[in-house]
Write a structure and sequence with these properties.
77% helix; three-stranded mixed beta sheet; 11 helices; mainly alpha; single chain
């Protein structure tokens, strides 16, 4: 067996360093992230159920919200169980090369899909506020299905190309990933192959698949803010803004943390800070979505009360 062939088969698993040696803080973080995971799953699944069962929520806005909650459920289940297992076993944990690529595949797929889904939601709010008389025509069920399907398909196309290229790489050491999940840059650092071309292509793909939805979101909110400012009454402006404020908060958190993590220089000094900001879009955004939409949305709260009332009546029977 040649040396090159030996190197290709040397590494079969990586060590996720997580947040390093945390000492007694490790168990506190474990409990914190466990609570976050439970609340995230319950909150997002609850929104999906409410959107499905309550006919008052059978509108384009809640159709998109249900898909977003479904996406966040998958997102959290891809990241948090591995993080929790590693915290439970001392803060670090091993993951196979195949497992690492699988985790990154679903991470990339869901992030790209969320970019397009958030853009579709911003377009929905644009039509509702700027073209209210045409809303039911422009946002009919067929258009909504096409926008959601396009969001999921776009995410799949982007990550499949990157994963194919990652499978061409060889790994022969080191084996330590300085992160709490298999992100692209920490993973790529471990390859013995020339990664220049894959870096360039992944940057191009990231621009192609993330810049258009980001610009569409910005453009939509540009028109929305312009339309709201022109509303003469204060109550009218507040009512119009309340219909898109929840989505604007989610978009700001999601894109703000992504830009910080992936646009700043990849220096050793910023690695720990990048990990902290990575928590925003991998852990906190899926948690905030159901909280923001349920606490700030009257229709969701009414649907929840009705569901609780129905359940209590059923229990009495």
């Amino acid at each position: 067996m040649g040396k090159a062939e030996q190197n290709e088969t040397t590494v079969t698993e990586f060590l996720l360093l997580g947040f390093g040696d945390l000492g007694d803080l490790q168990w506190l973080l474990f409990l914190l992230f466990l609570v976050i995971y439970i609340v995230t799953m319950v909150g997002n699944i609850l929104i999906v159920v409410l959107v499905v069962v309550d006919h008052h929520l059978h509108t384009p806005m809640y159709f998109f919200l249900g898909n977003l909650s479904c996406l966040e459920t998958c997102y959290s289940s891809n990241i948090l169980p591995v993080m929790l297992a590693n915290l439970f076993h001392g803060g670090k944990g091993t993951i196979s090369v195949t497992g690492c690529m699988t985790q990154y595949y679903f991470f990339g797929f869901l992030v790209a899909s969320e970019c397009y889904l958030l853009a579709a939601m911003s377009y929905d709010r644009y039509v509702a506020i700027c073209k209210p008389l045409l809303y039911m025509v422009l946002m009919n069920s067929k258009v909504c299905l096409q926008l959601v399907a396009g969001s999921w398909v776009s995410g799949s196309l982007a990550i499949n190309i990157v994963i194919y290229l990652l499978h061409q790489l060889t790994f022969c050491g080191p084996t330590e990933i300085n992160h709490f999940f298999c992100d692209f840059n920490p993973f790529l650092k471990l390859s013995c192959s020339d990664t220049h071309s894959i870096k360039l292509l992944s940057f191009f793909l990231a621009a192609v698949f993330s810049l258009p939805p980001f610009l569409l979101t910005l453009t939509s909110y540009g028109y929305i803010i312009s339309a709201i400012v022109r509303i003469p009454s204060t109550s009218g402006r507040q009512k119009a803004f309340s219909t898109c404020s929840s989505h604007l908060i989610v978009v700001s958190i999601f894109y703000g943390s992504l830009i910080f993590v992936y646009m700043l220089p990849k220096t050793e000094a910023l690695q720990d800070l990048n990990k902290v900001f990575s928590l925003f879009y991998t852990v906190l955004t899926p948690l905030f979505n159901p909280l923001i939409y349920s606490l700030r949305n009257r229709e969701v709260k009414v649907a929840f009360r009705k569901a609780v009332g129905t359940f209590c009546e059923f229990e009495r029977i």
